[in-house]
Design a protein that fits this description.
Blueprint (H helix, E strand, L loop, with lengths): L2 H38 L1 H20 L3 H24 L13 H22 L9 H8 L2 H4 L2 H10 L16 H16 L6 H8 L1 H31 L2 H14 L2 H7 L5 H8 L3 H14 L3 H8 L10
């Protein structure tokens, strides 16, 4: 074999070796980064781990341990997949700038969220059927707070944020497909009976199902989460608390609906059950943070019809 052929052979072999080990190195680096996050924000991390432990304990008592394990492992794998994708194909972005004072914007967002929660509380209570006329119209006006119509108007028309500064871009849009497939693989392997893709589209129809999942749930909630976690992070000077509080607030907004669907269950139990949404809320928020876009989390949220987070 000629020398130049030998050199070419060893060069190709080395390149193949490097290409094989590169993904492993990226995964190791991402795992180390997750450990750093835990040590950097110890109290929020402890609270998250306590929520994980509570979910595990409740599922064990209810004989749904496999369901809970599938849910929690899917959330962690989703976070890891997000880190690996962003680390493998890095790209620059403008982030989420705050130009009008972190505390001022935080108060605005939380006030709007509270008014939206007020409507949900009344709408799904036993008082709603008796509300008629002008009071009902007045309460229906709160829908602009339940869905972030008011916030979108303020941020676009008064604060003058550009769409890109609010996360409206196509960065890493394909990450959503990775997350949906990952959740689906775990669901079908562990608890296939939870999947409600077919029943969801059958009951609503294709277009209505997409609109409900992607717009009224995915886009509305992920836009609000982005505003909440970025402004809380800046106001508190702590990303751990910002992300955790945003996830907790989002989970509590589900309490009125859950309470109306389970009238025989007490409010404290429903409040505890609402914390079971915190892990997946952290995943959606982390996707937005790492990709600097709300599109991946919006798509993943809207297409998440596997049901892992429900009924634990």
């Amino acid at each position: 074999m000629y020398p130049w052929l030998i050199a070419t052979h060893w060069s190709d072999t080395l390149s193949e070796s490097l290409n094989t080990t590169a993904p492993i190195k990226i995964v190791k680096r991402c795992l180390k980064q997750q450990l750093r996050i835990g040590t950097t924000y110890p109290i929020p991390t402890f609270i998250v781990l306590a929520i994980f432990a509570q979910i595990t304990y409740v599922s064990w008592r209810q004989n749904t341990a496999l369901h809970a394990f599938a849910y929690l492992i899917s959330v962690w794998l989703g976070i890891l997949a997000t880190d690996v994708v962003v680390a493998s194909w890095p790209r620059s972005g403008i982030g989420f700038p705050i130009r009008h004072g972190a505390w001022g914007e935080t108060v605005l967002i939380l006030s709007s969220t509270l008014l939206g929660a007020l409507f949900l509380g009344i709408r799904f209570s036993h008082y709603w059927p008796g509300v008629q006329g002008i009071p009902k119209l007045a309460l229906l006006s709160l829908l602009v707070f339940t869905f972030p119509i008011f916030l979108a108007f303020v941020y676009a028309c008064f604060y003058r944020y550009r769409p890109g500064e609010l996360g409206f871009n196509f960065h890493y849009w394909y990450l959503a497909l990775v997350i949906v497939v990952l959740f689906g693989a775990v669901t079908l392997a562990a608890v296939p009976q939870l999947s409600h893709w077919r029943s969801y589209f059958h009951s609503l129809g294709f277009l209505r199902a997409l609109y409900t999942g992607l717009i009224t749930a995915g886009l509305a909630e992920e836009f609000t989460r982005m505003l909440t976690q970025t402004r809380l992070t800046a106001a508190l000077h702590n990303r751990g608390w910002g992300f955790l509080l945003a996830a907790i607030i989002w989970s509590l907004l589900h309490v009125p609906v859950n309470l109306s669907q389970a009238a025989h269950i007490s409010l404290p139990v429903v409040l505890i059950q609402s914390t079971h949404l915190v892990p997946i809320g952290l995943l959606w928020g982390y996707m937005t943070h790492r990709t600097q876009s709300i599109l991946p989390s919006t798509l993943a949220h809207g297409l998440n019809l596997w049901g892992l987070q429900n009924g634990i």
